[in-house]
Amino acid sequence: MARWLVTGCSTGIGREIARAALEAGHQVVVTARKVDDVTDFPQTYGDRAHAVALDVTDKTQIAAALAAAEDAFGGVDVLVNNAGYGYLAAVEEGEDEEVRALFDTNYFGAVDMIKAVLPGMRERGSGHVVNISSMTGLVANPPNAYYSSTKFALEALTEALAKEVGPLGIRVTAIEPGGFRTDWAKRSMHEATTPLDAYAGDVGVRKDLIRQFADHLPGDPRRVGDAVVMVAGLDDPPLRLLLGSDVLAATREKLAAMAASIDAWEQVTLDVGFTEV
Asked: What CATH number has the domain bearing residue 39?
């Protein structure tokens, strides 16, 4: 039995990860900005579930959540950074305040959570940090440029962190879901308030498609929860785990295109050294 802390559990993937961990017999600090959204967990699972209010942009609440985990279970063995939301905009349409708020939650919130749990994990010489990234953290397309940027940053953080803390006995994994049937494209979605006509035929159309297909995406969030619990139980988990046929196809296509471009431009790449006189 491990001690988990999962952020962003009010709906969707975070909720299913908390459920799957509890169903597997673990202890879970279940968090959401509004604690009333997760009070059903202790009602269902008893003392193994502890509901806590947590806004990951508030360091005081982060400290309180860690203190609650210590009081309830004695620490955190598995941190799942799931809290986050989307933002639809062309790059030119992006509003500075909205974009910075997006990074505060999706990236810096994860950073602050990681920094909060690492001292305990280092002291014990064990632990697992699971960052919920996205297909858009591997492949960027409009109108998700800014959302993708937060996830690309989280990917870099995950990769470097794994090398830093691996020798200390701490594991790190990024989960990259494709299209899953959650509230991401509905209730929790933010959008640029002043769209530009110049992008209506491309970015605007893509925005509409995202909204229209939100209820018809193929991925089952419960399967993400099950996959995360499986990965957290491995002695040698993957650094990255792609979930969904769409993210698999898109990533393979990108890797093939990158390889072809590298090969095509190899001579220019190599021809940058000093020329001997």
From this structure: 3.40.50.720
